[in-house]
Amino acid sequence: MKKNLLRFAALIVLASCGESSENDKAGISDSLSNQVTDTNKTTIADDGDEVALPSSMRIAGIFKRSGLKYIETSLNPITNSKNYKTTYTKALNLGVYSADMAYCLLNKQYALSKSYLKCSKDIGGELGLNSAFEANNLAQRFEANMNKGKDDSLLHIISDLQLETDIVLEKGSQQHISTIIFTGAWVETLYSASQVYKSGEQNIVPALIEQLSLVDNILSVLVKQKDKDPNITSLIESLNTIKAEFNNISALKGKDLDEVDYSKTTFNKDEINKLCEKIDAARNAIVNS
Fold first, then answer.
1. What's residue 121's pLDDT?
2. CA gap 257, 10 in Å, rounded
3. Which of 164, 166, 205, 262 is least enclosed, having the fewest CB within 10 Å?
4. What angle do CA 86, 284, 110 make, to 5 degrees?
5. Please, what is the Cα angle at 11 between 32 and 154, to 5 degrees?
6. What does the CA dihedral 264, 269, 274, 280 come to, rounded to 10 degrees?
């Protein structure tokens, strides 16, 4: 089902951020369990081909446990939104801002989260996604639950937004826009993790590496959709630079990634540093486009 793609993206983003109390973690886990069927496949191309993805619940659980702490400087400033003039750059950075919104939310930065929601709504409106943001009184529900500190309900609302966005784009035969949004959110999540790593938190590395194992699947979608927008070619090239460094990780060479226990794998620091440099370059190219 095509709408599973953005659901998958939303859950990765939502579950990858923040240091929470045990009660918060329990609430988030319940929300994730209620929002998604734990499947390992999703339809991600116009021709109906299916590409296997790791279980969204498995990825969500790994990132939730990794403790991706809040670093405000890792956010894409809202003031940058005025710089995005094309459909492509707006879609990419809608993904980025959606990731940042969730990042703020799960770190209880409610005022910032609300600002990022408004920013996302503004960009979404320029992409013809007003109906997605207006569905089910989303903005009013978000503010009401934010004021009450109901984090699990807010997660449901953001997931609803992602699904409504995908539905609107699918009806307009613009599935490639969904893929671009997904990629923007995915890269922003990697970037947040790389900043945490640079701050000295080594425990983020296994989660970062496991999320990077998605790169081939994302690239396969982009390759199939590159004729929809000429800018997708540059995005493919950017992700290929990340893939090249990922493939250079000596601890993973010759191994079946589905069988690797990342938490018990020792990674070379220099290789991780080079990987983070490529992630940072890809992300900065997106937000400065």
1. 87
2. 23
3. 262
4. 85
5. 65
6. 70
